[in-house]
TrEMBL record, chain A:
This is NAD(P)-dependent oxidoreductase. Belongs to the short-chain dehydrogenases/reductases (SDR) family. InterPro entries: NAD(P)-bd_dom_sf (IPR036291), Sc_DH/Rdtase_CS (IPR020904), SDR_fam (IPR002347). Gene3D superfamilies: NAD(P)-binding Rossmann-like Domain. The keyword Nucleotide-binding does not apply. It comes from Streptomyces prasinus. Keywords: Oxidoreductase.
Amino acid sequence: MRLTGKTVLITGAARGLGRATALACADEGADLALLDVCGDLDGVPYPLGTRGQLEHTATLCRKAGAAVLTAPCDVRDLASVESAVALTEDRFGRVDAVVNNAGIAAPSGKPVHDIGEDEWALMIDVDLTGAWRVIRTVARAMSARRAGSIVNVSSTAGLVGYRHFAGYVAAKHGLIGLTKAAALDYAPTKVRVNAVCPGSVRDDATAEGRMLAEIARALEVQVGEHEQTFTEAQPMNALIEPGDVAAAVVYLVSDDSRQVTGSVLTVDGGFTAR
Amino acid sequence: MVGEQCHAVRVRLSGSVATAEPAARLAAVGPWRLWVEETAVGSDEPAAHRLRAAELNRPTASVRCVLLRHRDGVADLVVVADRAVLDPDGLARLVEVLATGAEGPLPAPSARPVAPPSAAPAPDWGGGTRGDTSWGTHALDLPSGPASTDILAALALTLHRYAGHGATGDVAVATDRRGALRIEFPAGSPVSALRSAEPAPTDSPVVAGVVEPTADGAPFHLGVPADHLPCLAPPFPLTLALLPRPTGGTRLWAAYRRSHFSAGIVEAFLRHLAHVLGQFADAVPDTPVDDIELLDAAERERVVLLGRPAGPPPGAPERITDALARVTAATPDAPAVGDGTSVLTYRELDEQAARTARGLVARGVAPGDRVGICLERTTELVVAMLAVLKAGAAYVPTDPAYPADRLAHTARDAGLDVVITRLAEYPADAGTPVTPDELIAAAEQGGELPGDGGPDDPAYVIYTSGSTGRPKGVVVPHRNVVALIDATREEYGLGPDDVWSLFHSGAFDFSVWEMWGCLLTGGRLVVVPYLVSREPDEFRDLLLRERVTVLSQTPSAFSQFLETDHAPLAVRLVVFGGEPLDARMLLRWFDRHPEDECRVVNMFGITETTVHVTAQTLTRELALAGSKSVGPALPGWRLYVTDVRGRLVPPGVTGEIRVGGAGVALGYLGQPDLTAARFTPDPHAEGRRYHSGDLGRLRPDGTLEHLGRIDSQVKIRGFRIELDEIRSVLLEDPEVHAAAVVVRRDDPADPATAHLDAYVVPAGLDPAGVRKRAATVLPAYMLPATLTALDALPLTTNGKLDAERLPEPARTAPATPAPVGTEGTAAVLQEIWSDVLGTRVGLDDDFFELGGNSLLAVRISAVLRSRGLPAVPLRDLFRTPTIRALAGTGQDA
């Protein structure tokens, strides 16, 4: 059990990678603060995580022996982030690690000149600035304790471009930039900041993930066709499983990676190796 | 919000207690919320245990109440509180309110905890693991409830005893409410004084302290069974508390940092603390504190056995000559001893020795006499020694290289009538010199060998130079030598196939091991001529030529030998003796000779206990760890580590090494008083034991750590300094092959001018680099003032370090007048340094190379302060001893 005694805060924990990561952390003995927006956002053309999904993640984690706190949290709103972190600190005493997993894949599917001002701002606000809000809220206490791990869930879209996904690509590139700069800011106080870059992750039924489907929809292609294309694009000729990404996150949260900071760990079956 | 300041309780609530009840009760007594956790597991499942432990160990800044409701209807209430918000009384009351519905209000804290004082470094007896940040707990039920007011005094006394030999009579301890306290117990003070002493506040760092019980001094108490953690992390490296046992009585509870202590040591420490507490309660008030014991009878017995490992049963006491006669009868034609020019078989050795012995008898030597031997290392030396024994006398070896007055002193002190020597200039008043040839000639005049003496007759007298006074003669009987060989023969597979080198002077008792170890096990002894023993390359050639299998060396000599190409040797056993060994040196040996090809054994020994006492087989693993273990006692030898009063100290604690058993010598020749003082009756067995004057500690596994001479501990400017420790740190540098550290005074009359001079090998080393590395490990006061690189360390004729022949230390002046900066901090520092050091200082000159020391550093800081500038911490100066580096540091800060 590599995370015994640690409290891990995960955003976007209702489903998908968030749920898989929460379970993996619970299996390693962590206690969890599970946050999710628990509602739809104007401008995002697909349903986001729900309260019911978040509580289901919590139940799964409790069965694994974790103490769990759930709270709704909108990463676009600093006050919402601050109150969720305060609640976590009240319950668990401290936050040992943060997984900035909350993010949206759409609105997307158009060339740069067709992206509306609001669409651009929304994408950056959630996928990049949201992580910054969480980091700025937890970093002071982590620095004071001279311990902490922050894991930002970026994407291969943080390393290479994808056609018709400029907002997402820009936000995920920005998240890697934020990771590296924050790593240097907090290295003197032993707080680590790293990024994980998943490739194309299978929409696991029990995790209720829908990222791949939403990307396909944005590109106006069939999900099956899209899966096929991305499977072939990844040299290991398989989609990434949510648990593969969760395992990478657990490593970065755990003390096994205590000298790792500012790093970008790709879990993409070799996609960016070309 | 740190665990050190928090305490926690868990109680089981009956299933009928609904969430609402405790929540409402809590709301009535404080501004805290009740967290309810539906655990999704049964209360006995491992996950539930984990959850309980997690909640109990989760610190808070105020108060946290968590209700864990398990699937089986059972609930656990966990309350964690900052002791500044709720003291033990308040915590107990809150739990009562929540669990039973008792009425509030909660008592306010009676005294606030204070910030814990700084932690002392890990004690050398603690067995901690450097860098381990975790901590553990241990508890011990006490037979009776001690007065909780006694715990501090008992803790101080136990710590004082653990501090070991020469510890001063005051100890710093701490409590969570009163901070660090100094407790004194002058020698001879009674227990009552210690128990009633009012400790004074101090700012010393502490290694142990107590989390105090409730305001009225009564231990924390709850009406219901509960888990209670007095702290969620040890505020002091060793943190103690007295807790109530659910079944009545008191429990001594400890939390300890693993960086400072091992579980085994804490377990023993609590046992000893409990024993001290018990004696406090029972003692007559005027019992001297010194009479309080750490160990009870049962534990003393265990410690005695620890120093007395099992081994083959000792053989019957026997004379060396009788043991050798058996070997000679078994293999008369096997080669016994050679020196490159001649080889004698066992029969020839026996015959020549018998002839020489008859010559001695003809010269009037009688059983019980002492005969001097002052011969070069040749087969003749071996023949002469055996001859003296055959004549029923004891041999008194001296080295032909000794100065005349030492030879004369030995001869007079030992009352020598006959000295076998070929020295033309043998001193006139030192017995009658006679050559081996003359003895053989005299044998023709008849002279019958005496009948058998006993195994308790003296076999040899070897003179050892103590730190004070003239050398004294140690009288060793036959049986001890035979016991030494019996104790090692099987373990090291000593036998007729072995070829031993006789490397050491007959006057050094390491040669007793080499010579009799070989001959009594039927091996072939190769005498190494003196000049060959001084030339590592020639010695290597000899080992190769003679196919030597058993090599005995002092570490100093071996370190020079390691510079040769030693790869092709046939050596299967290397035995170290005579000096402390730094195991790291062996890595270069193991590179060429893996452990399965050649066994390497370090034997700690004392002339007064017949060459060796303990044996430690060394491995690459131990060498890498820089092990200081010299191993367990040899079978038949008994090892004790005692305090100044001769009482056994607990394993891990430093004390004087005392040795009993098969190796104890008869005493000092002609010095009955000294003999009576140093050889005393063994309180734990028959016979006597020898007070070695060496410091050591017996580890819990029965191995001994040898920590140097009691008198090699020196004080410089008030600091207790162990030279061996500094040497050991210097040797950690992979570039350093050998090292020596000495204390010198610039003005012999002025202790303030005392400083440490270090010497390192090889000559090509960069002293500044070695110093910089050492500065990261050694405290400032232990850093040598000078560091001089040499080709080799000077050795005595016995192959040990010859400190007197170390050269004057190199004090490097700046090689070139360095460019002097003109601006800012650097310029000011340059001006002050130049003034204080009395030489023009460049930006990159090393403070210590220029003769700087901690006193001068203090003066520099004083000047800086007088000018309103920040002082330079000594620590920084050791890490960055140049102005450029320091000025850079200053600007960043």
